[in-house]
Fold this sequence. Notes:
This protein is an alpha/beta fold.
Amino acid sequence: MKIGFFDSGIGGITVLHDTLKVLPNEDYIYYADTLNVPYGPKPKEEVKKYIFNAVEFIIEQGVKAIVIACNTATSVAIADLRAKYSVPIIGMEPAVKPAVEKNKNANKRVLVTATALTLKEEKLQNLITKLDDEHIVDLLPLPGLVQYSEKFEFEEEVVLPYLKEQLLNYDLNNYETIVLGCTHFSYYKDMFRKLLPSQINIIDGNAGTARNLKRILGEMNSLGEGSGKITFYNSGIESKDKNEIEKYSRLFERLDDIE
Length: 259
């Protein structure tokens, strides 16, 4: 059986990219909700409806596990999804815990970037309250990065000015770690590195999610014997256009280049 990956758009490819390194012998479904992306600015109940429609479709394809490769979707719907479906559902959340633990210098801060919806959701707020007893975590929404990536816009002359403007009010020398709390943001790690002081760690939850998926499949005795084949769906429509599949391939190549 295949493993299902779901995201509002192409952000989850960054998680699938890391998953292929640890689970190369699986076959995958990748579902991008391209008709409704972005989720971040939309009302919670509307987003939840999109998520459930997508997950229902993925389950109908016959999968042994589903990765909600979207921080916003996880924060909005993961508990309700697990209550409804018996298939293992692996979610994502901004890597606040490792970020706070990495913060060895008590005088330094942590900047968590994500979509506006993720940042205001109770799930993340509760996590920060639990972990951030020294009040070192700041929050920054970066919706423009979702929009740029969905347009396959990775040119520095376009994206760097946006990032510079968003970071303008932060004294970056006061920070030790920046969390990329949206899977779309990982496409821009190289640009973050150009703007940030060298001492700043840039972390996301992608590799940890991949390891968690492998652990769960191992416990289920359900590790596969596939070939790494990926079937792409755009809001429930299988992607068969060669140009479109080539665009997905270039995303994997970009991620290889910026590591």
